[in-house]
Amino acid sequence: MSTQHRVDRENAIKILIVEDDGVLASIWQTYLQGNGCKVDVCGSVEDAEVLFHSNSYDLAIIDIFFQHQGRQLEQGGVTLINRVNLDQVMKADEEKIKLIAVTGTPARAQGHYDLLSGINRLVDCILRKPIPLEVLGEKVNRLMSVAAL
Fold it and tell me: What CATH fold (topology level) applies to the domain 3-144?
């Protein structure tokens, strides 16, 4: 990612990261902010819904599975992705939020492949953790049609 291009832009890309791993979310946030993006982070679907309704974002990075009291909650990110898509039905394409779904669950996990196939049509791309920062930057660039972050 080239920082020169993003820092000089008057209208920075606004990104929401929805990730229950606070350390990982902080790494992504630091990287994207260092490249001129404005980034908000939250660790729950409930907080994300509040932020979506009170702010305007260009792109959201949403973890598919959330942990709650040591248990994996499948409906977390999937539910949020569905809600964001429903909210965008009547918007013009250029007004829609770009969505990146992320997952750390192996593809071979039972039911995971079917779930990913189902949400694939609702998001712009799916990335598997761990995600190299350069790959994250490349996907943001591509989705936002930016020469380089």
Answer: Rossmann fold (3.40.50)
